[in-house]
Amino acid sequence: MYSPAQAHSTQSAQLHIIFGPMFAGKTTRLLTLYQQITTQPKVIIGWAQDDRSNGHLKSHNPQLETIPLDLCVQELKDVLHESSYINACHVFIDEGQFFGDLSDIVQVMVHSHRKTVYLSGLYSDYQATPFANMTRALAHAQIIECLHSKCDMCGDIAVYSCLKDPLQDTSKQNKDAFVLVGGTNLYSPRCAIHRTFISQIKT
Q1: Residues 6 or more apart whose Cβ sits within 8 Å of residue 185
Q2: DSSP at 23
Q3: Which helix (H) or strand (E) holds 8?
Q4: How far apart are CA 151 and CA 114, in angstroms?
Q5: pLDDT by residue (tens digit) across 53-78?
Q6: Does residue 124 sit within a domain?
Q7: Do 133 and 102 contact (CB within 8 A), yes or no?
């Protein structure tokens, strides 16, 4: 498996994307990569409206250290003039799907600013609609890791992040409903069979 030490040896900037459904270990993987870098400056960026971890990068794995976010922004472009970003060789971005300007800005980071960018995020919302910004970013990645979870009903491979309560589905009233931030209180990982089970409940 790829290690950040490989980037150090070649001094080449690159985009490394970790994606998958919720509860697949994306943040755990991001934290692991972060902890492997000990000799070069690095910065962690989070989305300003994600209040689940109180300004920290936190994994579902209790054995991993919780790391304070260096920058919390609404749009990714807002970090470009921050000293912590400018001085960093390695940029870690959590919950990339929430940044509307994701694809354009990570290209600036990698190609213009010569940063190595590690990006984690969801590939689709709870309706299995792909996040277009993540899809566009994938086209520019040198390294891609696709993770999956386990269905909480049968233990099979889960590729869906399903909304537990159908009453929370406001997509007909709100075109931005896919931005419904939550954890195990709102979502559960499901395989294809048991995602259909939830869909039947909704109808």
Answers
A1: none
A2: T
A3: helix 4-10
A4: 39
A5: 677 877 666 666 788 899 999 999 99
A6: yes
A7: yes
